[in-house]
Amino acid sequence: PARNLFFTGRDNLLTTLHSRLTAGSGRMAVAALYGFGGVGKTQLAVEYAWRYAADLDAVWWVDAETPTSLTSGLAGLATALDVGAGTEPERASAALAELGRRRNWLLIYDNAINPTAVAGLLPPRSGRLIGTCRDESLRQVVGDLLGVTEFTRDESIALLRHHIPDLSDTAANQLAE
Q: Is 141 exposed, middle or buried (0-12, 13-18, 19+ CB in 10 A)?
């Protein structure tokens, strides 16, 4: 997705996410962003991808809402990597196998709903995987979840000021509340 030019705040979450995804080596690092709809999980993943893309050899976004969209997204990755042939599931498997031969990549499974589907399509080796989800059941596949909640008051005010620079302090506080 395109970068959100109005992305605001979330510095602590971005730092924690980066720490989880860069800890250790030789294995896949996984971080799952968990929270209610609309709190910014997807935007946080987008911002992370844009901030660190220059340090990565490959970044790929997958709509993980259904098993079909997850498989289709990975089949698209196979096309981009010029690997695999055959059905979408075969191409998805080829994409994951290719990632297993590489080291410096980021895969994002956005809006993962079905833990079984995600578990069946995890990359086999090293690299980074971000999942976003509304359901805590993804914990059984990826381990600890990183909670994303509503903006703090300061973040709300900063976002309002991005859109309305001359907003008074009183109005900004009232809107943020």
A: buried
Residue with the two structure tokens 């997807």:
42
Q: How far is CA 136 from CA 33, 119, 126, 146, in A?
A: 10, 14, 24, 10
For 31, what's the count of Cα atoms within 13 Å in the CB-facing half-sphere?
A: 25
Separation of alpha carbons 154 and 160, rounded Å:
10
Given a contact cutoff of 8 angstroms between Cβ atoms, the answer to whether 160 and 9 are in contact is: no
Tens-digit pLDDT profile for residues 10-66: 899 999 999 989 886 666 788 889 999 989 999 999 999 999 999 999 999 999 999
Supply the DSSP symbol for 143. -
28: β partners: 127
Distance between start and end Cα atoms, the chain? 30
**By 3-state DSSP, what share of the chain in percent is helix, strand and coil, each rounded to 5?**
50, 15, 35
